[in-house]
Write a structure and sequence with these properties.
InterPro entries: Ferritin-like_SF, RNR-like. By secondary structure, the protein is mainly alpha-helical. The protein contains eleven helices and no strands. The chain has one domain: Ribonucleotide Reductase, subunit A.
């Protein structure tokens, strides 16, 4: 690509990091349920090459418009899932740098990062099977929704780690799990079903980690810290969910091409869900998450949008 065609990125402020204080080094299990997630992840490891029947994808059996739509949908999921390739290592480093953080999340997150890499590999292979991965969104304005700089945010010394976990390891990973379940429920292609079965099993652990960690930490939060966590959750919904990051139909002004592709993919059974099913998944999940957060002393408001009912 010629230099003049590269889209300029805004400059970012300098990042202030924590100072490492490694000792005393605590290695005892203090969060056994999270350690169990680590052990389960190791025992259940799978191989994207060996454990998916790629021959059953048979993309040649679908008309060209469906193949093009599937190519775009699975490309978008590559863009989304690849966030973890930088974000999870940064989250591990943050846990390691902050004094007094438990060892169990540090171990667990190493398996999460491997699973995220497998998801990216599978999504990319699906996009390639239907004609080749698309390099970027159709509309330049949609790109900003994906450039979230999560690796910088979690490494910043001013970022409350528990608030970050609440927004991006509990709420967000749980939402991704429910959407993946909706896609699986409407999938009819055996290869796509196989991919989603593995992804769902992994994301069940990813979401469980976030909620378990919040439950372990909640008793020690101050009033101000609870308000910080609530604010981070609201920012995530406003700046990510409502801008079509997970569901492009929420922001057709940014992601019309992606929303139209998702609808075609859902109809073809290639790993999407009808808009109504995604809306139900989002609304039901947000309601359940609000209840769980209230039990931890976090008040999450209802969210209004002209794209769907309040959630």
């Amino acid at each position: 690509m010629p230099l003049h065609a590269v889209r300029a990125e805004p400059s970012l402020p300098p990042l202030r990091l924590l100072v490492e204080r490694r000792f005393p080094l605590e290695m005892n299990v203090t969060l056994p349920q999270i350690r169990d997630l680590y052990d389960t992840g190791k025992a259940g490891r799978w191989n994207p090459h060996r454990d998916v029947d790629w021959g059953a994808l048979a993309p040649e059996g679908y008309p060209e418009p469906v193949r093009e739509a599937a190519r775009r949908t699975w490309s978008r999921r590559v863009w989304t899932e690849s966030t973890g390739l930088t974000e999870t290592p940064a989250l591990i480093v943050r846990f390691c740098m902050e004094v007094g953080r438990e060892i169990d999340p540090k171990f667990y997150l190493t398996t999460r990062n491997t699973e995220e890499a497998w998801h990216v590999e599978c999504f990319d292979r699906l996009a390639e099977g239907f004609g080749g991965r698309i390099a970027r969104p159709a509309a330049p304005a949609y790109e900003a929704v994906f450039n979230r700089h999560l690796h910088r945010r979690v490494m910043g010394a001013g970022q409350m780690l528990d608030a970050y976990v609440a927004a991006h390891a509990a709420f967000e990973d749980g939402l991704e799990l429910e959407l993946a379940r909706a896609w699986r429920a409407h999938a009819s292609n055996p290869a796509v079903q196989g991919v989603l079965d593995h992804v769902i099993a992994d994301k069940e652990r990813h979401a469980a980690f976030g909620w378990l960690y919040l439950a372990a930490r909640a008793e020690g939060w101050s009033k101000d810290e609870r308000e910080t966590i609530a604010s981070e959750l609201c920012d995530y919904v406003r700046d990510v969910v409502l801008k079509g990051y997970h569901c492009p139909w929420l922001a057709p002004e940014l992601a019309r091409a992606e929303a139209e592709a998702d609808a075609i993919v859902a109809d073809a059974g290639l790993g999407g869900a009808p808009r109504a099913a995604e809306e139900d998944a989002l609304a039901t999940y947000a309601g359940n998450a609000r209840t769980r957060l209230a039990e931890l002393g976090i008040t999450l408001p209802a969210f209004e949008t002209n794209r769907m009912r309040s959630f």
